[in-house]
Design brief:
The protein has 586 residues and is of the alpha/beta class. It has 3 domains: 259 residues, FAD/NAD(P)-binding domain (3-Layer(bba) Sandwich), CATH 3.50.50; 110 residues; 154 residues, no CATH class. Helix content is 37%, strand content 15%. It has 16 helices and 19 strands. The strands form 5 sheets. The chain has a 6-stranded mixed sheet, with helices on one face. Helix 1 links the parallel strand 1 and strand 2. Helix 7 runs antiparallel to helix 12 and helix 11 packs antiparallel against helix 14.
């Protein structure tokens, strides 16, 4: 029988895996044939998140020139580099365009079709537009992948889970809020992919509490304003009259930082410098394990500082008080935060040019406003300042930090479980909205349709309504009959609505304390409670402890997901080739 590979998921992660299978097959696969089965109710290429059937108002949050599905020489991998066009090259767009998600879906579909065309003769791909319900089978034998609506399973020599963002059952807090909403006739929208949420219960003119200030909120804002017929004329929003009034807050109380609006010039910081593969390997070799804050964060902080100051000293030397060679030598030798701070204080006169990661993570810490109106003015000024800085190349040390964040993420993927905080911090600094979206926020705020609640937003359900407060404005509260949790569900095994992951967990697949699926960081094989990799089951994606910033990436930044795809493809091909040889020998 021909070898069978089942890939559950047909979005960009599966597409990238197929591309790597096509690239590595000539070297590694000796069989005369191979059947690949893609299982996903959504079309191959874009999958659910990047499907073409969604509102054209929804954008990507990256410039078109910063989106690629193809490897280059900066990707550390064993397989061959196969270059290809970025989104802007493929679509003949201006590189600085923020394309809509429909266009990205078409790009992903084209990449998928290219991968199919590049597969060797005898390798077939079939799409099954169904949900996978569970995987069964012995560790050393063929696996069975059970599909919704089919009585017989797909037989598989190997299974790769290439799932994206998944729905989840509510946690205790969300369940209690939902129950309260049902009891009192309120509206409660739990964490979800915003494009799939039913927003019709949010009525015109009524207040809506929104908890979450990231990209899910941006989508919500767009769909409830332009999506309901409003429009912008310059810096002014002209309402349709069908909009609700959004009261938004979060842990930080501010939106994610704007995408940087200028191009890189000059030398890139030579990364990794203080946190590379050798340091990651040393952490993994520790017999007693490692702690993120104690052992990993100092390396991250040192690396991001190096990226920041390399750019500051080499591109804006007039704002420094020391030669770069001297600073670099002393920075490398600094024994701890106190020495580093003393060096930076002496070498960088303006505090605005110094990197303070704690202040960045908590921009409203200790800040108090005497009135809600004053806070609206204050946060608008904060957003305007962020926009100005992120579009001013004289602050290009920020872009150095962005490159440092990408480099660091690539090393953290090697470590596996590093806890939930890092991913949110990365997204807040490096994966924020396009500048135009923040300008739209400002216009909506001036129009009275968007009101800021503050940091540490707390929501209570009492007196028949939802009530929000924040220490940013002591004594102020706002009531509403609707609450929206503007964020994706947490990717946990125990609460996954997808039965496939729950069944894997019940079958012995290990999870981290945060509920992520544990995988071998080397090739993505699923681990059991004893740390043993399953020989026939792999997993890639945000629900694993080797999650990456995304399934596609900015060109020439190392592409951690590409490295993972290559390692998994090579491991799968080697296994299938060896199995084929054994089958022929019988």
């Amino acid at each position: 029988m021909r070898p069978q590979l089942v890939i559950v998921g047909a979005g960009p992660r599966a597409t990238g895996l197929l591309e790597r299978i096509a690239a590595n097959a000539p070297e590694l696969y000796t069989g005369s044939g191979l059947d690949i089965h893609l299982v996903d109710p959504h079309p191959p290429g874009g999958g659910r998140i990047w499907r073409q059937a969604q509102s054209p108002l929804l954008w990507m949050n990256s410039h078109a020139e910063d989106v690629t599905m193809f490897t280059d020489e900066t990707v550390t991998m064993d397989g061959p580099v196969r270059t290809g066009p970025t989104l802007h090259e493929w679509a003949a767009l201006d590189g600085g365009t923020f394309a809509d998600r429909q266009l990205q879906g078409r790009y992903l579909r084209w990449v998928y079709e290219q991968a199919l065309a590049d597969l060797p003769p005898g390798v077939t791909v079939r799409h099954h537009p169904r949900r996978a319900l569970r995987v069964s089978g012995p560790r050393e034998g063929r696996q069975q992948v059970w599909l919704e609506g089919r009585s017989r399973p797909l037989l598989a020599d190997l299974v790769v889970l290439a799932l994206g963002h998944l729905d989840a059952e509510p946690d205790d807090e969300q369940a209690a809020l939902a129950a309260y909403a049902r009891e009192h006739g309120l509206v409660h929208l739990p964490p979800d992919f915003t494009a799939d949420s039913d927003l019709s219960p949010l009525r015109p003119g009524e207040p809506v509490l929104v908890r979450g200030f990231g990209l899910a909120f941006v989508d919500l804002m767009v769909l409830l304003t332009e999506g309901r017929g409003g429009r912008y004329e310059g810096e002014v929003y002209l309402p349709s009259g069908r909009e609700p009034v959004l009261h938004v807050g979060s842990r930080r109380g501010v939106p994610y930082h704007s995408k940087i609006g200028y191009d890189w010039t000059g030398d890139r910081p030579p990364l990794p410098r203080f946190f590379g593969p050798a340091e990651a390997k040393a952490l993994l070799a520790r017999p007693d394990g490692f702690d993120f804050r104690r052992d990993v964060w100092p390396l991250v902080e040192k690396e991001l500082g190096y990226a920041h100051y390399h750019r500051l000293f080499t591109a804006h030397a007039e704002r420094t008080a020391m030669a770069w060679t001297d600073f670099e030598q002393r920075y490398a030798a600094a024994a701890g935060p106190a020495e580093t701070l003393a060096l930076v204080t002496a070498a960088v006169p303006d505090p605005a040019d110094r990197l303070d990661l704690t202040a960045l993570d908590h921009p409203l810490a200790g800040v108090r406003y005497t009135s809600h109106e004053d806070f609206q003015d204050g946060l608008r000024a904060y957003v305007e300042g962020d926009l100005k800085r992120r579009h001013d190349p004289s602050h290009s040390a920020d872009l150095g930090v962005f490159l440092g964040l990408l480099s660091v993420y690539g090393q953290l993927v090697r470590l596996g479980n590093t806890g939930p905080w890092w991913h949110g911090f990365f997204s807040y600094l490096a994966s924020g909205p396009p500048g135009p979206r923040l300008r739209q926020m400002l216009a909506l705020s001036r129009a009275g349709l968007l009101k800021f609640v503050g940091a540490g937003m707390t929501v209570t359900a009492e007196d028949g309504v939802f009530r929000a407060t924040s220490p940013t404005v002591p004594g102020f509260s706002v009531e509403a009959r609707a609450l929206v949790e503007a964020r994706l569900p947490e990717p946990t095994l125990g609460r996954a609505r997808d039965s496939l992951l729950r069944e894997l967990h019940a079958d012995g697949a290990a999870e981290t304390p945060e509920g992520l699926l544990r995988v071998d960081p080397g090739d993505g094989r699923i681990l059991d409670g004893a740390g043993r990799p399953h020989p026939r089951r792999f997993a890639l994606g945000p629900y694993t402890d080797a999650r990456t910033p995304g399934a596609f990436t900015r060109p020439r930044t190392g592409g951690a997901a590409f490295r993972q795809n290559d390692a998994t493809a090579r491991a799968a091909l080697a296994f299938l080739s060896a199995s084929h040889v054994k089958e022929l020998a019988r």
